Amino acid sequence: MRGGEVADFVTASLRVVPRRALDKGYTFRYPELEPALRDLLGR
After folding, report:
1. Across residues 26-39, what is the average pLDDT?
2. What's the confidence (pLDDT) of residue 2?
3. Dihedrals phi, psi of 17, to nearest 5 degrees
4. What is the pLDDT of residues 3-27, one digit of tens each?
5. For the chain, how big is the Rg over CA atoms in Å?
6. What's the start-to-end Cα distance of the chain, in Å?
7. What are phi and psi of 10, to 5 degrees?
8. I need a surface site. Which of 4, 33, 40, 42 has the fewest CB within 10 A?
């Protein structure tokens, strides 16, 4: 695999949960990436 292929492989199967922040009661404006990117990009 080349660098880009490795990055695609790793990120495609990655599920990151900010457990400590959530446990302390933090709420995210955008809990999912797609709506956050849409807002950021104005779409």
Report:
1. 92
2. 64
3. -125, 125
4. 567 767 666 666 778 999 999 999 9
5. 14
6. 34
7. -70, -50
8. 42
User: Do residues 16 and 25 touch, judged by C-beta distance below 8 A?
Assistant: no
Tokens of 34: 């797609």
> Which residues fall within 8 angstroms of residue 28, CB to CB, at 6 or more apart?
18
Q: CA torsion 40→3→7→29, rounded to 10°?
A: -20
Kindly state the tokens that stand for 7.
Answer: 């990055």
Residue type, 23: D
Q: Please report the pLDDT score of residue 3 as a whole number.
A: 57
> What is the signed CA dihedral for 13, 29, 19, 21, rounded to 10 degrees?
150
What is the Cα–Cα distance from 31 to 18, expressed in whole angstroms?
Answer: 10
